[in-house]
Amino acid sequence: MLVHLKPYLSQNLLGRFLYHSKNCQVPCTLAWKPPGLLSFGETLYFSGVRELHSQMIFRHQGFSISQASTQTVEMEENNMMTEEETVQLTTTPTSYESAMDALSSLITRQKRGDPSKIAGTYSKLDRMSMYTQILGLEKHLAGLKIIHVAGTKGKGSTCAFCEAIMRECGFRTGLFTSPHLIDVRERFRINGFDITEDKFLLYFWDCWNQLKKNVTDDLPMPPLFQFLTVLAFKIFVEEKVDVAIIEVGLGGTNDSTNVIKDPVVCGIASLGMDHMESLGHTLGEIATHKAGILKPQVPAFSVSQLSEAMDVLRERANKLMVPLEVVEPLDHEKINGIKLSLAGDHQYTNAALAVSLCKSWLQTTGNLEKLFQQDNQIDGLPEPFLKGLSTARLSGRAQVVYDCSSSSNLSMTNGETSGDLIFYLDGAHSPESMEACGRWFSSVIKDVKDQSFPHSCSEPGTGKPILENGFRNNGNQPADKISKQILLFNCMDVRDPQVLLQKLESTCAPSGTHFSKAIFVPSISTYSKVTSGASVIPFDSPAKDLTWQFKLQRTWERIIHGKASDTDFPEKTLKNEIPEGFPHSKFLNEDVSHCNPAEGYFACSSVVSSLPQTINWLRHCVKENPSLKLQVLVTGSLHLVGDVLKLIRR
Ligand SMILES: Nc1ncnc2c1ncn2[C@@H]1O[C@H](COP(=O)(O)OP(=O)(O)OP(=O)(O)O)[C@@H](O)[C@H]1O
Ligand SMILES: [Mg+2]
Ligand SMILES: [Mg+2]
């Protein structure tokens, strides 16, 4: 039998493929292929395929062709196919890595806020409208029942709470958030799960090819975030979600997601100082951008804000005749004492916003009464809301991960860890979020002090919370471990490290949290490549230029030692005195109190050129010292957090 496939993309297809059916793998031979690269619509023949199944997948070095058309499956079921027949399949394109390469080619080199990128015949939002038109999404977009969320901090968390609540209420959800930590598919969730690779590829190449065919000088391929936004719309329309929860990428007024004209409800999470290069240098200016997502007469909710921001929101809302309601952080009582699944006090604010957004959505769509009547709650929230609030998930935000590979007691079974190396991951990268992060870290390590080990490890990166409420105690943990707090930090060079590190230190210190050591290390991921979970991490490719990390270190040392400026802190102490590559063995045994930079020695910190080596080194430390427990706060950059998650998952 010959199977006739029409690949949608250029790919070099050579060699043998494995045909996976339900229960077996049948190798099949590539019988013929057109010379050179296959291009759109070209034909490829296989022989040796014995049976067809709707879930058939061909794989060859990551190249997969999947999903037989319904027609094919029906033909098979009706026994209509004969050996001689050539069957045409609707194929999905294929290698996930080639999709990542294609996506990476959309990353623009211009810096944010660079006015040159605004030039051109059409505005960004005009172009977004045109892209949605090309993809035939315009009229469907109007039918998506959208919850649209802007804000400086807490957008993603608010959206994650909304998703979980709406799902618990029985609706099929689509969730679009940014950024991603490990795999770009994290940005697109359908009914609570990251979109599958096969579906992603199907929709990705469909959008890609249609847009490619229609580009002109005035309408080039969209930059990355615009592409991801139209892709989200495509996915949610095709997947027929009941509710689409859309997080703004940056700002509001000019954000690609603002092509949404008639959301069901809008939310504005906490406002603060971030992305000033694009949004302006005052809170008022920033609020003006965020308020740009409000739409005439569409209900809107926000949380308490500084008056400079709130005034702007109210003014805009009045102009548009928008009912704007400000919600208070959730009250513990109202949620029956349940624990929010996203940790940190700030999440009570985000959760409250999500509750109001969901209620409003349910009301507008005529579902509220049904839901609230069914439930016999009095003042509190209905069961699905409570369930949603206690199960929402978002990786890399106040996430605790026990590192299994570091267990000093290898005899422990069932994936249990001695809990000696614990990563506290939070991608905070603005002053407000750094403060929230510091508060969370200080409180959570206190809680842990009162807990017992070991704890079961679970797979990071799956979104499952790693730290359950409470630990299991099997009674054999060593008593009185010495806990040390370590800071693992990096941030992008557009951030002000003085502000971020100062915020962290001044939030932690009053609660008695002092970092024994701070390690400054470059992230592995960069903004120049979109990665997948399967992307290879170069284990040993230390960064060459560590100028930025040395600057971070100097800033930290100045803060720790209360020095006001570089003149109080001679630069010569930085030269030659930094331990090369690896912190030396004494590193952990020294203490902040012994650290005197004036004497030319940086005992409280180190610059390390390789993240994988840093993690190995931390693992080594706890293995060598059974009495030591390391609590490592990883923060400053979501890239760093994603890289650490990826490394400790391996
Ligand atoms: N309400 C809040 N107030 C202050 N900080 C917060 C708040 N919510 C979240 N954060 C901090 O911001 C970080 C990012 O949270 P989240 O992903 O929910 O926000 P976001 O607005 O989507 O951020 P991003 O700019 O990374 O997209 C968290 O790790 C936490 O440190
Ligand atoms: Mg942001
Ligand atoms: Mg976000």
UniProtKB/TrEMBL annotation:
GO terms of biological process kind: one-carbon metabolic process
Gene3D superfamilies linked: Mur ligase, C-terminal domain, Mur-like, catalytic domain
Residue numbers spanned by region Disordered: 454-475
EC number: 6.3.2.17
GO MF: ATP binding; metal ion binding; tetrahydrofolylpolyglutamate synthase activity
Keywords noted in UniProt: ATP-binding, Ligase, Magnesium, Metal-binding, Nucleotide-binding, One-carbon metabolism
Reaction(s) the record says it catalyses: (6S)-5,6,7,8-tetrahydrofolyl-(gamma-L-Glu)(n) + L-glutamate + ATP = (6S)-5,6,7,8-tetrahydrofolyl-(gamma-L-Glu)(n+1) + ADP + phosphate + H(+)
Enzyme category, top tier: ligase
Pathway(s) it belongs to: Cofactor biosynthesis; tetrahydrofolylpolyglutamate biosynthesis
Cofactor(s) listed in the protein's UniProt record: a monovalent cation
A GO cellular component entry from the record: cytosol
Family: Belongs to the folylpolyglutamate synthase family.
Protein name: Folylpolyglutamate synthase
